[in-house]
C-alpha cells in the first residue's frame, strides 16, 4: 500500500509538472489582470453577443467608487430589458410583462467570469498561452488562449486591453474548434467621469406597480436534506450552495460548480402540478447546455457553460439519501 501511494503521488506530480510546463506563466498573469480589471474599472460601452445564428447588442455602464460597483445592462434588440447589478443583488426589469426579478446571489455575467482563487488550478484543466495582439473597439488587446485538456469543458480565446487588462472580446469553442458564442465590444470608453444617473433604470418609476419575483436566495447545506453531487468532473469545485425561489416554487436547491472559468448550476426542484409535464433530456443554446432528469419526485436540472457530456455527467451523479 505504501508503494502504491508513492507511485500515485509520483504520477500526480508528473502530471502537474507537465501541466505547468505546457502553460505560460505570463498568460496566467494576464488572467489575473483580467480579473482585477473587472473589479476596479469604470467604463461604458456597447457589446455584441452572438450564438448560433442570433446576434444581440447591449449597452453596459459600470461605475466603481467607495460604495462599491454598480452596473447597468440594457438589451438593445428585441423586447426591452434592463439589468441593474450592485454588490450581490441583481434586479431585472421586464417591461413587456410588467415584472421585476430580484436575485440576491447574482446572475450570469455578460463576459466569462474568472475566479481568482482557482487561477492556480486552471493549468490542470487547460493549456494557457499567449497569442498575438489584436485590435478591438479601438484598443490594442492581448490574445490569451485556453485549450482544454479533456472533452469536459470548452476552449476559450480572450482578448484583453494592453493598458488596463479590460476584457474586450471572448470566444468559446467546442472540441471541433467550432465557435459556439462570442462577446465583443464595438464601442467602449474606459475610465473617466460616469454620472450616477446613467446607472438608474428608466423603468424604475413604472415598476412600482409591477409584479415582483424575488429569488429569496439564502446560503444552505443541501446535504442536510439528503442531496449531494457524488463526483463532479475533474477540475470543477463547488463555489456556492443555496436554496431559492424558482419558477414560483420556493426551497429550490441550487449548487454552483466552476473550474475557474466555466460555471455549471445544479437545480433541485420538487415535482409539482406546474412542472409535472416537463420533459427530461438535453437542450442547448449557444454554449449553454441543459440536462434534466427526475429523481425522488424531484427535477434535477443542470445548466452549464460546458459540453453536454459534462452537464449529463453532473446530473447523473446527483444522489439522494434520506437523512
Account of the protein in words:
This protein has 323 residues and is α+β, with helices and mostly antiparallel strands. It has four helices and 21 strands. It has helices at residues 2-22, 25-40, 122-125, 308-316; strands at 43-51, 54-65, 68-75, 81-86, 89-94, 99-103, 126-136, 139-148, 155-161, 167-173, 179-190, 211-214, 218-219, 227-229, 237-246, 249-258, 263-270, 281-285, 288-295, 298-304, 318-320. It has a twelve-stranded mixed β-sheet. It has a seven-stranded antiparallel β-sheet with strand order 13-15-16-17-20-19-18, covered by helices on one side. Strand 7 and strand 8 (139-148) form a beta hairpin. The longest helix has 21 residues, at 2-22. It starts with a helix and ends with a strand.
The largest β sheet comes out as:
12 strands, mixed
C-alpha geometry: globular
Following the backbone from N to C, one meets helices and strands in this order, namely: HHEEEEEEHEEEEEEEEEEEEEEHE
Query: How many DSSP-defined strands?
Result: 21
Report Rg: 21 Å
Helix content: 10-25%
The amount of beta strand, in percent, is: over 45%
What's the pLDDT, averaged over the residues?
A: 87
What ranges have pLDDT less than 50 throughout 5 or more consecutive residues?
1-21
Find the structural class using helix and strand composition: alpha+beta
Short note summarizing the structure:
With 323 residues, the protein is an alpha+beta fold.
Describe the secondary structure blueprint for this structure:
Blueprint: H1 2-22, H2 25-40, E1 43-51, E2 54-65, E3 68-75, E4 81-86, E5 89-94, E6 99-103, H3 122-125, E7 126-136, E8 139-148, E9 155-161, E10 167-173, E11 179-190, E12 211-214, E13 218-219, E14 227-229, E15 237-246, E16 249-258, E17 263-270, E18 281-285, E19 288-295, E20 298-304, H4 308-316, E21 318-320
Parallel strand pairs: 6-12
Antiparallel strand pairs: 1-2, 1-11, 2-3, 3-4, 4-5, 5-6, 7-8, 8-9, 9-10, 10-11, 13-15, 14-21, 15-16, 16-17, 17-20, 18-19, 19-20
